Here is the input.
Amino acid sequence: MTYLTTWAAEARPRLLEETTDPARIRAVLAGIAVRFERWPLASGLPAGAGTEEILTAYRSRIDELTAAEGFVLVDVAALHPTTAENWREVAAAARERFLAEHTHADDEIRFFAAGSGVFYLHVGSRVQAVRCEAGDLISVPKGTTHWFDMGVDPDFAAVRFFRAPDGWVGAFTGSDIATRIPDFDDLARRAAANAQPGTANAQPATRRPAAAS
Ligand SMILES: [Fe+2]
Here is the structure.
């Protein structure tokens, strides 16, 4: 389930809101010019599907978006846990790449065909952390300060759309804010606890914690 948490970007970040309500997530992200939508999941796509299988499964949607937005390149970035001895190093290196706050000269558009990853969008005095799941499309506007966390055990496949072959190059801000906001695995634990039967957030819901004193 897609999960959005909103944090006050302070020295000790404070949770302002958490929600799994798709309409609320879309509205919050629209408020910072971030496009978010859900595509119906393709049926019959096997776990660990390769690039061509994913692109074929979503061909009509991908072609529609590409024609509308003028993308010149579409590919798939994927990482799934393996039993290889060096998996931890491979995973850590991949995770590290965009784990610090940065911007791009072009929009960053991702469609999650499988797995999950968290985009952190730092706009004004807030950070919106959106854990994207399979079926989620997110577009981070160029120039938006953000980072991405795939967790300690990355497991995802995301279609990437580019207007320029080098549009994904990151310009890092030097901020340490990413170290102060709960990471992918922290948020996964929080979402799992919320989803326990009998808790307030067991169904899609929005909560706004009382302000800290
Ligand atoms: Fe990025």
Summary: Helices lie at 22-30, 51-57, 59-69, 87-96, 184-194.
